[in-house]
Amino acid sequence: MELLTKSASVFHLIITRRNASEILLLPNGPGWMLPRVEIDLEQRLAEQLTAEVARAWRLEAYCLLVTDVPKNGANALRCAVMEVIRQNEKSQPGTYWIPRSVATRCCHSPETAAINESLAQLDGYAKGQGAGHFACSGWLRELFRWTHEQIAPRGLRLTGAFRQLNASPTFSLIRFETDLGAVWFKATGAPNAHELPVTLVLARLFPRYLPTVLGVHHARNGWLSEEASGTSLDEILEFAAWERIAEQLAALQIASIGKTAELLEAPLRDLRIPRLVERIDPFIKRMGELMAAQKKPAPPPLDRSELETLGEGLRECCALLASFGLPDTVGHTDCNPGNIIVSEDRCVFLDWSEACVTNPLLTFQFLREYMTRGEIAEPAGGEGLAAAYLRPWKGLYSSSDLRRALALAPLIAIFAYAVAADSWRTVDPVSDPKLAGYFRSLARRMYREAIEAAERSELCLD
Asked: What pLDDT digit, counting tens, does each position of 69-78 carry?
């Protein structure tokens, strides 16, 4: 048997039809078994599951929920509950639709437990025992109908083709094809339920930089948008495209000057410099607790003196950055090139769950960080992207001030990223050692940036 790669995992599929009254099974000697597929955990789960079901069993299906069912003395059984689109879908040779009451008795013990537990979760969502509309049978058929109602007045017609990109009871991301292009439906739950009002405000204020919203499904906390034409920035290696994005980011930020109150009410996260300063001391104290909880000797934890140096460096850099008088603008703590679309006539920014109001240079620093991780050949010794970004700002501020302010951005950007949400306050190093280790690594990187900022401090002073 071929060994799985580190990023691959086997999923047992509970494929249902007719309101989960029947389950697809395969013969297994004298008994039955669930279909299984191998999935790359580093890729979109739902998209792979639907593609594998279509390839292996020629069934058009979509995901309802994904769950891990514990096994005695072994790793949990990874399961995906799915539903076929056509409720009278015939099974392919070698597969059989089995009544649910029979299927829960005829498989071997681990799979029987997996079916029972997974379907119990499905029943709970159907009865409203938890927030989870996208784990209820038939939700995709309902969404098809709703989408048709939204696009019909625009002369568009659904073709029936779709791509499901994630599987979650409260989140959904689906691409529907129409006879003239495609539309996207996105819905979010906690902790990203704010993305709907944020997206609506940004799309209204800055229509050039966001996809057109076609409809809002308030009951599902979701919205329908036109597909932005163009190419995702993460697929582009030409530096000129990144230059153009940098300029467009600056133009978007300049357009948001003076709209702080409206953006914060949306609500975008408040990462303005004074709010960041308020979090420095609590953050340093919390990092001291996480450093003390570190079990591994390497990399060494920051000691008290080093954390104090980091706190002083953060306060000094925040004060210096504020002294340049740059305005608060719309920002994004995850300026991911995968969520930026480039075409001949516009650049579109997607996925605003991490939107914020902050100093504009911090968002550019996130963009520059993504570029340095990639394979983009930047000219001028790393200064080309900064020159493109600062170009629109030069009509408002002096070049020397912008350059000196930009030198402060790396340290403050990492700090803003670390404290944007409250997980740094609540992480338990015992129950979640991986997240605690991540924050320790961020603190160590900030310490190095603080030391470097101090060494080049003359660049930040008049």
From this structure: 876 656 788 9
pLDDT in tens, 29-56: 888 999 999 999 888 999 999 999 999 9
- Cα separation, 316 vs 115, whole angstroms: 58
> How big is the chain, counted in residues?
462
Contacts with 84 (C-beta within 8 Å, 6 or more apart), sequence order = 15, 16, 17, 59, 60, 61
Query: CA–CA separation, 55 vs 295, rounded Å?
Result: 46
pLDDT higher than 50, residue 170: yes
Under 8 Å between Cβ of 188 and 222: yes
**What pLDDT, on a 0 to 100 scale, did the predictor assign at position 458?**
52
Q: Are 297 and 381 in contact (CB under 8 A)?
A: no
pLDDT in tens, 241-256: 999 999 999 999 999 9
Nearest in space to 409 (alpha carbons), one of 302, 305, 335, 304: 335
Q: Which of 373, 377, 405 is nearest to 389 (CA)?
A: 405
For the record, the structure tokens of 58 come out as 């020629």
Tokens of 361: 């240079």
The Cα–Cα gap between 45 and 176 comes to 18
Provide the β-strand partners of residue 61.
84
Chain-centre distance for alpha carbon 337 = 12
Tell the residue number behind the tokens 């539903």, with chain if given: 83
Reduce the DSSP state of residue 204 to 3 states and report it: helix
The stretches of 152-238 forming alpha helices (DSSP H) are 195-205
Query: So what's the pLDDT on residue 71?
Result: 66
Question: Are the beta carbons of 194 and 215 closer than 8 angstroms?
Answer: no
Look-up of token digits 């007719």: 18
Q: Write down all domains in the chain, each with its CATH number in brackets.
A: 8-132 (3.90.79.10), 139-226 (3.30.200.20), 231-460 (3.90.1200.10)
332-343 per-position pLDDT tens digit: 999 999 999 999
